[in-house]
Structure formats: structure tokens, C-alpha cells
Design brief:
single chain, 4-stranded antiparallel sheet, about 20% strand
């Protein structure tokens, strides 16, 4: 009886060892590196199953991808030219830049005189039309 139990235990542990070694997902935490300079953008990725090298050349505006392994479930980190940071310029409606004050005397503003308002006149009708006040 002990021999049958020992053989059964050995067979069970052998089967468990095979299934965990073969059936598991060998992916590990991905090792990803991005580098960008004035000439190109590069992205390297490796997770144990999928390895790829992506490169985008700024001079030729071409990209190149080299894959190795099963990369079906891995999104490729492609360079997107529309995401480039562009310099900002002031909008057309922005205020003009400040100028330094000049040494000349400022011109005087027009004066406004305060007095009585102009007398109200009765409305005038075109020639040949009679107007009577409303009652």
C-alpha cells in the first residue's frame, strides 16, 4: 500500500510540475526605454515573450519596426507627429507689446465744456406736409 501511495504522489507531483512550467504565462514586467533627440525617436520593449524596436526618423518622416516573438497583445508605442510641442505665438487679438515712455510732452486731450443743453426743437416735417400735435 505504501508503494502505491508513493508512486501516486510522485506521478501527481510530476504532472503538476509539467503543467505549471508549460502552461504559465512567461511574460514579466516589461522593460521599456524611450529615447528622443533631434534626429530620431526610438522605443525599445521587452517583456520576455515580445521584443520590439521602434524608430521614427524626423528627417525622412519614416518609421521602422522590428518585432521578435509573440507581440499580438502588446500595443506598439508609435511616434505621433501631431503630439509634437510647437512654439506658441501670441494670438492675433493679443495686446501690442509695451513701449518705453518718450521724453516729449504728452499731447493734451480734447476739452469738453459743461453748460446748458441745447433747446429742444419741435420735429420738422418735410416740405408740403402739415404736422399737428397729437391730442
Amino acid at each position: 500500500m505504501k508503494v502505491h501511495a508513493l508512486i501516486g504522489f510522485a506521478a501527481a507531483s510530476f504532472i503538476v510540475g509539467l503543467t505549471t512550467g508549460c502552461g504559465g504565462n512567461p511574460r514579466h514586467a516589461p522593460d521599456a526605454h524611450m529615447n528622443q533627440n533631434a534626429e530620431r525617436y526610438t522605443y525599445d520593449y521587452d517583456d520576455g515573450v515580445c521584443t520590439y524596436h521602434y524608430q521614427y526618423d524626423f528627417k525622412t518622416l519614416k518609421d521602422q519596426l522590428q518585432q521578435d516573438g509573440d507581440c499580438r497583445d502588446v500595443p506598439i508605442a508609435r511616434y505621433r507627429p501631431q503630439a509634437v510641442i510647437t512654439p506658441t505665438y501670441p494670438s492675433p487679438g493679443a495686446a501690442p507689446p509695451m513701449t518705453a515712455p518718450t521724453a516729449t510732452a504728452p499731447q493734451a486731450a480734447p476739452s469738453v465744456s459743461v453748460g446748458k443743453p441745447a433747446p429742444a426743437t419741435a420735429p420738422r416735417a418735410p416740405a408740403g406736409v402739415a404736422v399737428s400735435p397729437a391730442q
